Model the fold of this input.
Amino acid sequence: MSKNRVTPEEALAFHLEPTPGKFEVTATVPMTTQRDLSLAYSPGVAVPCEAISENPETAYDYTTKGNLVAVISNGTAVLGLGNLGALASKPVMEGKAVLFKRFADVNSIDIELDTEDPDEFCRAVKLMGPTFGGINLEDIKAPECFIIEQRLKEEMDIPVFHDDQHGTAVICAAGLINALHISGKKIEDVRIVLNGAGAAGIACLELLKAMGAGHQNCIMCDTKGVIYQGRSEGMNQWKSGHAVATEMRTLEEAMKGADVFLGVSVKGAVTQEMVESMAENPVIFAMANPDPEITPEDAHEVRPDAIVATGRSDYPNQVNNVLGFPYLFRGALDINARAINDEMKIACAHALAKLAREDVPDEVALAYGKSLSFGRDYIIPTPFDPRLIHRVPPAVAKAGMDTGAARRPIIDMDAYEVSLRGRMDPTASILRGINARARANQARMIFAEGDDPRVLRAAVTYQRSGYGKALVVGRQEDVRKKLEEAGMAEAVREIEVVNAANTTHLDQYKDFLYNRLQRGGFDVQDVHRLAARDRHVFSALMLAHGHGDGLVTGATRKSAHIMDRINHVFDADVGSGAAGITAILHRGRIVFIADTLVQEWPDENDLADIAERAATVARNMGLEPRVAFVSFSTFGYPVSERATKMARASEVLDARGVTFEYEGEMTVDVAMNLKAQENYPFSRLTGPANILVVPARHSASISVKLMQEMAGATVIGPILAGVDGSIQICSTVSTANDILNMAVLAACRVG
Done:
């Protein structure tokens, strides 16, 4: 399997395209008419201003305050890079803002403060307090981070949370709850050794002590050894709070007989000898990044009974803060909390631990390409578990209410959980599952248009992302030159460049093509020109002979031309039952529109075929199909020949006995709106349709382009279905990422 790696060029391109940065601000209200403007601004805006002036709590009703978090840093401790300054920390803070939105639907704004003075920092944040529902502090060096957080907590009446400290502590605590459960030990009895007396380490011990760990049982170490009572070197007030009376002076001494090791220090700090000296069923959380204090392999070599967690995604049991901070803030914001207290953090840890002990949904296993179940290698939920959004925030909110932190307690917790489920974007899990399947399949992907820089970037990314082998059709020198111009000169040694001049299979290809086309007006010379000079035909021949597993093309030529060339090699025309299915992703919904590629004017039988093709695609992408045959009429009114054929298509499916939901004819609003569907209780659809079969190709194309241009929808496809080979056709306006998406679909054989 190819190693998934990111090059500097790719990272910079990701942050540059399609627009600089990682997020934008969009309006949630209409701003199209003069009346809209009058309500949004003057004079209408005066009314909520007066209401808030009379009752400040109504700011949570009339503004974004209740779902807005500030991600604030001064850049003094950026990732593992050190003091890069405020401006250089902005990409990290933007990334944190995106994670808030992606995982918990929390809006956030990044703010970088150009000061290292704690007084100035605190004053700036305090002055901005009215704007936000919470403050997330990030990448601030110790000990200033302790000072800043404590002062802001005392001076502000909204949650202030330093994720580097408490986020790590919460996830660590969740994992430890389950690790101790497996080993049959209790937190109040175990001896814990922590290495790394920085912000995260101190927060971890403080939280574990709040959960019952004994002070004398917790040994903290730093670069100078054990922090013991009476030590003066390298001490501060925060370390002193965890000093214990002990004769131990080194990490090695502390590890003897220890039940738990927590590491937030440096690579290699723990040796196999240290691990070997620990108690039975030792728990080892080696959380240093990017490399742990000891690798799981080295730990298990000497102690097979060890339960090991790291901060890395390529090992089991990743201690990942994204499991905590989005959901902590979600729960805190939803009760208009004054603070995030210890009880809320502990509730978050217990909710995470409980979730890991439950059966793992199939979609999670699919996303990770392996079966997951509670045990030594699965003590912490995965970041992409869809249950997190509706399991963790309610626990946090309840703890906040029980401890008096809530301004607005939640009355109906069941309804609250339902509302949380609706915040999760289902398209994200679908696409994640497809990506995981692609990595598992390791398909050899043929990129037909090796003279296009977009295609080359997609091919390189495909291979570097670990999806499989990229086979680029083009001339070696031309490919090399274009990769150099794109800043990826080294990639020419990674991908495989193929063409008629360097293949040993050309004669075989020509024989196959001649036998297929000889009665269609093609002579030997015609076939030679097609096989040797037309990259689309050549690529299709590679696929037909098993010299690749999938094909992506269409970035440089219109789809009609591409389909003509593909049909020289495969049966992908009207008579073969092929169809083009386009996926539209918009505001957390995914809808398939068909046929967008093959059938110009389908009759009722063709429409039924298209519905079956689309249902197959939907199921291959993890969705249960609900098909609507759409028109300008609904169930017979108004009467039209163009609408009648859509109704007859349902009758065709009746006779075929298909196993998916379908209905029609109907207008799009009836098909997709549950409220509108209530007027037709006889309808066989049990929910909004996710497949729209349209009367003709022109209506499909218009629908897709309108959604793309007017609504800003993400378009994937058309996905070519019903063809023997896995072929996907891009549009000529595709970005490198669009082409990559089509390659992933081809790798998964969704058609």
Summary: The domain at 1-34+425-572+723-751 is CATH 3.40.50.10950 (Rossmann fold). The longest helix spans residues 163-183.
